[in-house]
Specification:
alpha/beta; Spore Coat Polysaccharide Biosynthesis Protein SpsA, Chain A; 7-stranded mixed beta sheet; two-stranded antiparallel ribbon; 12 helices; 13 strands; 29% helix; binds 2-acetamido-2-deoxy-beta-D-glucopyranose; Hexosyltransferase
Length: 355
């Protein structure tokens, strides 16, 4: 059976390659210039580990972005936020590369990097010389005191919680942002996701109403009437927090950061869920989410959390605008270990790692 699963994955990978062929052609590896920049980490100088991405230019008809000091407030920008740390660096760089490559107006894309180490700014600038971006240092202490121990160590990385603080970190003039995880690639024009109608909701995301919502919280949560009453006036559905469109103005107005933090405080004493950064989002937003097409989060490509590296997943039926390697396996690790899953071949073209 295993080969059949692998084979069907391979077939969908090939089909997708064909579908994406025109855009893949615009990728010129020959244009990738060796980067000679240096990054300073803990006082040690490292040569940049990443090739310079090709320069992506606007198609005809794109809006001109202002070049003044307040550029970040230009209303024509498409704002994207992503975290950048050493563990997922290769994934974050590939994600940004994929966004620029498939965007018809790449010069309108503004990246907000939430970093664990400010030295990463040099790396971004040398890998994407034309990119409009800003780097924000995310103070781990903000969440460390709010986090309790959980099943998976990876979920306890403070940077996982940086998405909770976008509304506070980003400039007040930035009123909407797309938040993306670091283990995904975008294979469609990000401006389509950007122009999602949130219908008055604060966040938009693909929703999964058939998923068993009960299992995201403990029996203790459901048996505590005060806690579980939070869902009494809504029909909550699971959504993945790795791809979200956020109305930052509404978030600030209604103080959602504090609401999320309040649930994290409750978790410390009452143990109302097992996972890390996701459940507080579900508690605050599930049932109040603007639905986005599932093609914008083809999730689970990382495979099974328990079975680990060798478990490959296929795509979900329907359109494909974003491929997400959520789960325990990451494409760069599987490629390096010479045990890639068939769909990892769709991540590889965006990889800029290695000189
Ligand atoms: C949903 O999950 C809960 C907790 O894991 C379980 O008790 C329940 O039987 C599940 N419901 C369905 C319909 O599978």
């Amino acid at each position: 059976m295993q080969w059949m699963i692998r084979f069907s994955g391979f077939v969908s990978a090939m089909m997708l390659m064909i579908v994406l062929a025109p855009s893949l052609q615009s990728f010129h590896p020959a244009e990738a210039i060796r980067s000679s920049s240096h990054t300073h980490i803990d006082g040690v100088t490292h040569r940049s580990w990443f090739r310079q991405a090709p320069t992506f230019r606007d198609a005809a008809g794109c809006k001109q972005i202002r070049t003044s000091a307040d550029q970040i407030c230009d209303p024509s920008l498409v704002h994207v936020a992503i975290t950048l740390d050493f563990e997922y660096l290769r994934g974050s760089i590939a994600a940004v590369h994929s966004i620029l490559q498939h965007s018809s107006c790449p010069e309108s894309v503004f990246l907000h990097f939430l970093v664990s180490d400010t030295s990463l700014k040099t790396l971004v600038a040398s890998t994407f010389p034309k990119l409009k971006f800003k780097v924000y240092y995310f103070e781990p202490e903000i969440v460390r005191k709010l986090i309790s121990t959980s099943v998976r160590q990876a979920l306890e990385q403070p940077l996982n919680y940086a998405r909770n603080y976008l509304a506070d970190l980003l400039e007040p003039c930035v009123r909407r942002v797309i938040y993306l995880d670091s283990d995904l690639v975008v294979v469609d024009d990000v401006s389509k996701l950007w122009s999602t109608d949130l219908g008055g909701k604060t966040i938009g995301a693909p929703e999964y109403c058939h998923a068993n919502f009960t299992k995201y919280f403990t029996a203790g949560f459901w048996s505590n009437g005060q806690h579980s009453a939070v869902f009494s006036d809504r029909n909550p559905c699971y959504f993945n927090t790795g791809v979200m469109v956020i109305d930052l103005a509404k978030w600030r107005q209604f103080g959602y950061t504090k609401r999320i933090e309040r649930w994290m405080e409750i978790q410390k004493t009452d143990r109302i869920y097992e996972l890390g950064s996701l459940p507080p989002f579900l508690l605050v937003f599930a049932g109040h989410v603007a639905p986005i097409d599932h093609g914008w989060n083809q999730h689970g490509l990382g495979g099974d959390n328990v079975k680990g590296l060798g478990s490959c997943r296929d795509l979900h039926p329907g359109p494909v605008s974003l491929l997400h390697w959520s789960g325990s396996g990451k494409p760069w690790l599987r490629i390096d270990s010479k045990q890639p899953c068939p769909l990892d071949a769709l991540w590889a073209p965006y990889d800029l790692y290695g000189l």
